Predict the 3D structure of the following.
Amino acid sequence: MSLGRYVGRRLAVTVPVLFGVTALTFSFVHLLPGDAVDAIVGFRAVSPATEAATRAEYHLDQPVWDQYLLWLRDAITLEFGESPVTGRDVSATIGRRLPATLALGGAAWLLALAIGIPAGIVAAVRAGEPADEVGRLAALAGIATPNFWLGLILLFVFSVRLGWFRVLPPDAPLVSLATAKFLVLPTITLGTASAALVMRLLRSSMRRELDATYVTAARAKGLPERTVILKHVLRNAVLPVVTVAGLQLAFLVDGAVVVEGIFSWPGMGRLLVQSVLQRDYPVIQAIVLVIGIAIVLANLLVDIVYAILDPRIRY
Amino acid sequence: MSDRQPTTDRGRIRIVGFDEATEQKRDSDASSDAADADGAAADQSIASRAATGIESTTASTSALAQPGRRLENAWRRFRRNRSAMAGLAVLIVMTVLAVFARPITVATAEVTVTLQPFSLAPSDPAAMFVGPPNASPSPAHPFGTDWAGRDQFSRVLVGGRYTLSIGLVAVGLALCVGVPLGAIAGYFGGWIDEAIMRVVDVLYAFPFLVLAIAIVPILEPVPILGSGYWTVVVALAVTGWVGYARLIRGEVLSVREREYVTAARALGVPDRTIIRRHVVPNAIAPVVVQATLNIGTVVLTAAALGFLGLGLEPGSAEWGAMLAQGRSSLLRGDWHVTVFPGLAIFLFVLAINLVGDGINDALEPNRDVDDDRRRMR
């Protein structure tokens, strides 16, 4: 199958999923008990005029199917209206919070790769030896550590006791030395579990590749073990790790929801928690939609990149 | 399988060399034996019946004897795994501590029945000012006290009840939904498969915790869900079933092509019975492993919900909720409020992971836990 046809087919599967994601997010407000207007205005007593205006603004006076299409039209043009709790424009709020989360998530992702890939290689090459056992236990510990707990402990030791880092984020622009320094602890907190995941996945896929005949061939022709591992095995083994980018993204988002709160980092995760606690439904809806679409698109992108890198999977 | 009766009753045609060959193969390949025990038994019972000319009614009478053997073998392998046994020991100790932490009573209007009279915890976890607030660990309060002067040691012990039961019940509920749906999707294929798997794909677009957070406000006002405990459980089950559905579907796709399934179908066994008796038992092992490991994930997510102040009532003695006050108390310098509940979560999840890995090695030594985890996505 040509690449074009593969991408076309992959897109054809993605479109219904995207519709499903939007439909599920749309129905969120309608699944809440009571009238949708109550949910949108935050269960306050409002005058009949306001109620009618809200009803018209969110097209609640029309059949559900039309409501969905109108909502979808608004969502595509990023018009989520105003938050009934804060009165601010929802898209603008999210737009302001998104870069902070991307910076934190990106840094944590890089840290996860920087730790996970070398550790995974060592564990696979030294499988069954003490180094592998230590790595396995370290990875298990990384997975088992609740990130909110790790964050609190790091905050206590390095910020409160030692005073190396600020407790609250600095009032500096996102790209600045002060912000970068502050991000060290949240990045470690968020990256630890992901590093453990990367390590375990890479170890398992490298173990499989090490049994392949091309490895024996490479060794037989006298290549140094280093070249065999880094040039031959790693290149093949890293692909299955890349394909879980969607999983990793979901993992990082889940982590960010908690970690941002601990470090008072003004990102989307913290916004989501605040919105749930304040019952700010339009904001919850918009954030959930952004996250869902981001993950669907990430999975699509990964599959396409994978197909370009490894033509065998375009079956 | 190997201690089968001699083949004298097979009729006049004697098949020589067949059994030795089978047995050798089985000895050399223990793992495929474990995986296919049920199926192979069904195959052979059909074959022997056909040879003796007996009318075959059901294909699985002798298959029923097998799972016991299989579990026995798995348990023997599990017992030899030192880290898995250590994990199991930790789990048992934590369960016992949680159950015997405070007396359990069932109270109706007239009578109060005490189910469990022991009390390991020195004080009521909800009782305030049993000691000075924010006291450091001391002989009277081994884990110190929190801001309201509640005994942390008692709260950590009793908190295990929330964590352990939320983990078990949420995973159990998710399995009850995910396994049948995934098996049906994989077995029938076609539009049923498409429909179920598209729903799975849509739910998978949302991260576990984000979806659970979003579901909490929908579930919270439902009256039967009560004080938030069931809100958390249902939210975690609703988000959790998709992984099992996806995993077992993949397994069923290969199991349904096996000869014993074809044979059962040819004999006119209803699809329902084939799925229940032949397909699911042979496809379930990786799901059992992932479900065990997922208890850890679910416990972490439940604790995160408690930490964020969602679901359970504030002030509950749940490990995650106990940490919710952790930030302010840490900034004051009271480390003990945070350290002990977190350590309890860490120990529990670590133990669950050790046990899960051990179960995998015992059930299917050649399978890769991480590979399955990847496939759940």
Q: What stands out?
A: The CA atoms of residues 124 and 203 of chain A lie 5 Å apart. Chain A touches chain B through 59 residues (CB under 8 Å).
